Amino acid sequence: MTTRPDQREFTRVPVSVKVELMTRDGVFFTQKTRNLSMKGLYMEASDKLPVNTECQLRLFLGESRDAACIEILGRISRVDEMGMAIEFKQIEVEGFERLRDLVLLNTNQVQEVEEEFRSHLGLRKPH
Asked: Closest by alpha carbon to 45, among 62, 30, 25?
């Protein structure tokens, strides 16, 4: 696998999907993701949550809330003035496959992304 200058494990792709973010304190909803990878996403948001807040995400793969979705457990890893970065911690097999397909559909580096999939066990590198 080629080493990228930013040393990220997974390629980020520019994609805008609806996101529902839930915490113990309630539901936060935005319609904008700036990018995502197999490891996390960045979402634009005017209201932000503290770093390390655990959350549950639903990424909607269509325009309505009845559309297919990907459910993910995550944690806020970074906050800036434009939004929040969220690291994925756990995802079910079906959601993982949908996420993989979404990344592949939105990349122009298909071979590199497929190599990333082969070199990982789910969201983690093998030990």
From this structure: 30
What is the C-alpha to C-alpha distance for residues 70 and 109, in angstroms, rounded to an integer? 23
Instruction: Quote the domain boundaries for residue 68.
Output: 13-118
Domain-located, residue 6? no
User: At CA 45, angle to CA 40 and CA 49, rounded to 5?
Assistant: 75
| CA 27 to chain CA mean position, Å | 18
- Is the CB of residue 123 less than 8 Å from the CB of residue 38? yes
Does the pLDDT at position 110 exceed 80?
A: no
The pLDDT assigned to 64 comes to 73
Residue 57 lies in a domain: yes
Instruction: Give residue 10's pLDDT.
Output: 83
% helix, strand, coil for the chain, step of 5: 15, 40, 45
